[in-house]
Every structure is written in C-alpha cells, then in structure tokens.
Amino acid sequence: MFDPVIAPSGTLLGLLQRGRGDGTLHALTAPRAEALAALNHCVLSDPRHDWQVENRSLYYARLYLDLNGELDAVEAHLFDPEDVLDPEESRTGLALAVLGHLASYGRRDALELLRRYAAGGTNWAWALDELALRDDDAGLRALAAPVLARFATDAEGEAELAAAVRDAFEPRPWRLWADDPRASIATRVRAAQETGCFDRWQRQMRPTGPRPGWSVQAVFEWAQQGIERGAALHVPAARCLVAVAGPEDRPEILRAARSGTDGARCTALRYLADSNDRDALGLIEGAVDDGTATVVEAAVDAFERMRSIAAVDRARGWARRPDALGAAAGRMLACRGGAQDSELVLAALREAVRGEGPDAPTLWTLVDGTGRLGIACAAPVLRHVYRETASSHLRGRAARALAATDPSFATGFAVECLWDCEETTREIAARHAETGDARVVEQLRRLAADPAEEAEVQTAVRSRIGPDTPAV
C-alpha cells in the first residue's frame, strides 16, 4: 500500500483524513454535497499511515449518520473490478469496518451491503467478521453456501478452507455452520475445524531455533543466519544468551559486541544492555560510531531499554549529539529524566519537528515526556504537532501533553477532541473539556448514550456529567 496523500490541515478533507474532531464540526456546517464528497474520499482511499492501529471507522460511520449519507459510492468501490485485481485488505477494510458500525446503528442498507460483499467480494473474510458481530443467525446461515463455494472440494481446496476456519478472527459463523442442518455444509466445516486444530498442534510440536545445550557461538551464528535471510533475530538470540551464557563467556560476548558479525554484535549489545553490564554503554557508543546501519539501530534500541541511573547520566551527555544516539538520549530523558532535563527534552522536541516534521516517529516519546515533565513553554510546539500530524495516535499524545502544559486546552482543543477518531483522545477530552460550551454538554450526553462508545470514554463522561446536569 502506498503512503496516502494527506491534504493540508486547514481544509475539510485534511481534517477528516486526520480524524480530527474539527473535521466533523466543519463537515456539519459545510454544504452537504461537499461534506459527503470529502467523507467518501476518506473511506474509499484510506488516509491512515498505519491502518492496523489507527481508528477511523467509527468516526466516519458517525458522520455518515449525521449527514444521512448514502452508500452508493461505497457500494461502487466494493464491487469495482479492481476488487479482483487488488486483493489487499487495505483497499476495502476501512469501508467494510464503516459498514459494520453503520449496521450496528441500525442502517439496514449497510447490513445488506456487507452480506452481498461477504458472498461475492474478494475481502469476504473481513466482511464476515463484521457480520459475525452484528448479523442474526439467519443472516449468517444464508452465507454458508456462497462462502463454502469459494473452496474447491479437492485436497487443496479443503486445505484452504481449513486455513480460513483456523485463522478466522470471529469464529461465530463457522460454529453456526458446523451445526447446519445441511449435511454438505456441516460435514465440510467440522472437518475443516478438526484439521485446523491439528495444524496448530503440529506447529507447536515443531519448534525452530535454539535448543538447550547450544553454545554462545551457536547463538551468534543463528542470529547472523537470520540477518542473511532478512530476519532480525538478535532480540530472541539475546534472550537465549541469558540461558546459555555463564561468567566464563563474558570475554567472548564483549569481543562480539566490539567486532563481531552484525548478527553477533547486535545480539551481544542487546544482552549486555539488558543485563546492565558495566561496559555496555561504552560498547553502544562505539557501535554507533563505527557500526553498520543494522548495528547502529540495534545499539540505539538496546540503549533506550536501559533503566539504570548510569544510562540516564550518560544520556545527558549524549543528548546534544547530532545522530541517532543523540536522538535516543533525548527520548530516554523524556521517559526517565527529571525536571533538570526539561531544556534538553524541549530542545530534542524542537529539533525533531524542525528536522523531520510533525510525523517523525521520535515525537511519540518526546511528546509524552514533555507532558510528563510539565514543560509549559513547549505548548506552542505541541499545538503545531496536534494540528499538523497525520497520525491520530500522535495527535492524542499531543492532546494529553497539552492537558498537562497548556492552560487554554480545556476551552480550546479539548472541545474538538470530543469528536476525535481515537477513543483515548475522546477520553482525555471528556475529562478536561470546559462544559460552559453548549456543544460540550450535548456531545457528552451523546457519548454517554452511544452503545458503540468505549467504556473508558463513558466512564470519563460520567465523572463530569450526571443525569440531572442541566443543558447549557
């Protein structure tokens, strides 16, 4: 999947793509046709950088409800010929998840569309999972025949069916079909269930990797073999060293950390850092200075995992380095530094935004640390990150940091956060938004009554507003 093109944050499309609460508020005041066009663009061209962790489906479904939006564009997208040519889940997953939420809100057209796609669409398994949570038994039983017809009755087809049953996210349809009165349905599904259970048992009986009795050198060789075939194994290899290495092996591990192969060096550095070895910090610095990109990345990761006072002290000296180790030092101080480190953390935050932009991965930790340390003068930078980032998770972290650093948060961003796409951000808003705004009380009541809302959000809402709270 290509990285999505995100519109400017000041446009309606850009707001909706980011999942910001202001996107909903602006869409409800914009011309309906314009709002629906922007909404359809988001649903049909998933704007998330990481579609597996960022939330948008409930956010977009609620906006379809508010706009009384038709689903013609979603239907055309699902049943476009490209559905056969591009079987990636990312092409249709968001649209199917939106339909699932709409079905839970009682939209019959969304339910029927999901049923049709489960019967004939390429990403049928996702649609079936959505239906498993929302459809009745009769609706699911009606899909048994068309779903099973996808699998040939030869050995290869039965193996594919067994894998589909084994890997199903929601087992409810398969359990219903296993008890189907039609013998042709029930027999195939039961056989597939038994095969799937046997497959799992076989995998458990054929473990790969290190065995008891391996030497330190054997672990290093295993880690290097992983690198040579494109698999990073130094983390599990370091755990293996804990089991196989003794005090007499320390010189060999130190040599590997200084000059071993990439696999051995990464493994040794991780092992020494996790055990707080007295030489670990010096070896990490040396690895960053002369190691390959793979070694540098492993060394930096190992350093950031360290919890010792010595590691934090060393981070204070490294924080101004203009390299990966300097950035890691800033993140360590953000996580484990004290009030005396505020200037270093703020400098790291500003440098990351200037050098890498509002979506830099390093910002996640720095933004959290800014809030943890209560760095009030960081509020302007945090507001910039909040507005511009395309990551709804990073925006939520910025909102949490602003709640701790910006006195205007309760009457500013906290209000729009009540409509945000991420439930954790809505929870922050529910705890901080100033109820003097009429929109706030109305939205709090809506969230409290919405069965699709997360329990944590509703708990936060009820801490602010009771059944007798008057509307403003």
Written overview of the protein:
The protein is mainly alpha-helical and 472 residues long. The protein is 69% helix and 0% strand. The chain contains 30 helices and no strands. The protein is flat and about 70 Å long. The two termini are 46 Å apart.
Please count the helical segments.
30
How does the helix and strand content classify structurally? mainly alpha
Overall pLDDT metric: 91
What fraction of the residues are assigned to beta strands by DSSP?
Answer: under 5%
- Beginning-to-end CA distance, first to last residue: 46 Å
Low-confidence stretches: 198-206
Total strands: 0
**Silhouette:** flat
Largest sheet: none
Tell me the series of helices and strands, N- to C-terminal: HHHHHHHHHHHHHHHHHHHHHHHHHHHHHH
User: What is the helix fraction of residues, given as a range?
Assistant: 55-70%
- Cα-based radius of gyration, to the nearest Å: 27 Å
Key terms:
flat, 472 residues, mainly alpha
